[in-house]
Design goal:
With about 450 residues, the protein is α/β, with parallel strands linked by helices. About 40% of the residues lie in helices and about 15% in strands. It has 17 helices and 17 strands. The structure holds iron/sulfur cluster (SF4).
């Protein structure tokens, strides 16, 4: 059970020395109780207090690492229910499955297809994170060979999926050094599977149907010392998935219910490929940490990684591009110059629509701290003064011989002052960037 702020306060030195950055020990205790501070910030806490406070000081959901090296994946460490409360720390790790029943060449080809599921979105590289090997055969040697082929064909961390401890042991003999995630310890097999996870020092999915059974099993395994756990309720219908994930997150974050203080796992494996993608999208939104899906169709994965990117962006840190002058195509001295902000999504929308217009052009991305056009205008971050400064610092006058700027239609109000300050003719473009091709066709004359 989590300690209250007052209970934590009684364990602190209560000298109000401020070395932790808080004005009083009580203020620090409140921060600690809310999971917003680390006990390490108080250099004067006694060992006894540290021990007593360890539960309060640790995040409500454990941080779990899968894999090793540059491709290792981290999940968990979450502290909030909604991202606007602070942020989500780690996006859902997406795993694509391979079956051990595939012939070696087909298996290697599928793994290669998974390796190639890499997408560029708004300047960021998004990819499938893990490869999950399903023990469909039930055969130890078949599973061992599949793990061998898969491990040789990918640098992605692996998920070894079997209920059979002997099969998992065979997979770990091959890939144990790569720190795979193993699925799953159940009420029936945990006495064989948990020692395996402990021997190889790998994270383990605990699977049980029903939240109470899952809590009991996770508490028993965690109490025995294995703390690198993920939770799988076994629910596969989307309503049940949503309910289970929400209950687990609420109990972990709001009640500090330790048996649920681990990231969650879900395998989406329905019969309808479209429904599978929709269910996976629900899982990504609420709050699956490792999600396995059985498709290598880039259209499915592009939808999911894009959705994930939107959900897990830190709302306090908009994704921004470098504020500068961008050349689209191969623009000459008569090319149009568009003004926009350095909010990544805005910039890439404008760039995409300029490309679609097939008119080489320049885009001046003004530094608005990564906010969109209207937000920046409302916050005083997209002003005639800032645009004029950006024009000068980017040297736009040196790359074009005309003196005409196209500003977003939604901030037409800036045009008069901007023309006066900059000395450039200011053209009011379309309100939405999708109107750029038509706008250029109708209005732009070099
Ligand atoms: Fe209190 Fe420790 Fe903070 Fe000093 S550093 S104010 S003793 S909590």
């Amino acid at each position: 059970m989590a300690l209250t702020g007052l209970e934590i306060y009684k364990l602190l030195p209560r000298t109000n020395c401020k070395d932790c950055g808080q004005p009083t020990c009580l203020a620090f205790a409140m921060q600690l109780a809310a999971g917003k501070a680390s006990l390490d910030a108080c250099p004067h806490a006694s060992d006894q207090a540290r021990e007593a406070l360890s539960a309060a000081a640790s995040p409500p959901i454990a941080l779990i690492t899968i894999g090793v090296g540059d491709n290792a994946v981290q999940v968990g460490n979450e502290t909030v229910l909604f991202r606007h409360e602070k942020r989500f720390e780690h996006p859902t790790a997406i795993a694509v499955s391979v079956d051990d029943t595939l012939p070696p060449t087909a298996l290697a080809a599928r793994v290669e297809a998974i390796n190639n599921l890499v997408f560029e979105r708004v300047g960021q590289t998004c990819r499938v994170d893990l490869v999950a090997i399903r023990n469909r055969s039930g055969e130890v040697n078949t599973f061992r060979n599949a793990v061998r082929v898969t491990a040789a064909a990918t640098s992605r961390p692996l998920v070894l999926m079997s209920y059979d401890a002997a099969c998992l042991a065979a997979g770990l003999e091959i890939a144990g050094q790569k720190r795979p995630l193993i699925w799953a310890a159940t009420p029936e097999n945990h006495q064989e599977v948990v020692p395996l996870a402990a021997r190889y020092g790998v994270p383990l999915v605990v699977r049980a149907e029903g939240l109470e059974t899952l809590a009991t099993l996770a508490a028993a395994i965690g109490g025995a010392g294995h703390k690198e756990l993920l939770l799988d309720t076994g629910t596969r219908d989307v309503a049940g998935l949503l309910a289970d994930q929400t209950h687990i997150r609420r109990l972990a974050v709001q009640k500090r219910f330790r048996p649920f203080g681990y990231p969650t796992f879900c395998h989406i494996a329905g019969d309808d490929p479209v429904e599978n993608v929709l269910d996976a999208a629900v899982g990504i939104a609420k709050y699956v940490a490792v999600l396995v899906i059985d498709t290598v169709d880039p259209a499915d994965l592009l939808a999911l990684v894009t959705w994930r990117l939107n959900i897990y962006t830190d709302p306090q840190r908009p994704v921004a591009v470098e504020p500068k002058l961008y050349a689209i195509g191969n623009p000459g001295p008569d090319a149009p110059v568009f003004v926009t902000t350095n909010f990544s999504l805005t910039y890439f929308c404008v760039a995409g629509d300029v490309e679609a217009a097939r008119v080489p052009a320049y885009i001046l991305a003004v530094d608005t701290d990564g906010t969109s056009v209207l937000t920046a205008w409302a916050a005083g971050k997209l002003t005639p003064e800032k645009i004029t400064d950006a024009l000068a610092s980017a040297g736009v006058a040196e790359v074009v011989r005309h003196r005409r700027l196209i500003i977003p239609g939604s901030v037409a109000v800036l045009s008069g002052k901007l023309a006066e300050l900059s000395g450039w003719e200011v053209l009011v473009g379309p309100r939405e960037s999708s109107g750029i091709p038509a706008y250029l066709k109708e209005h732009w004359r070099p």
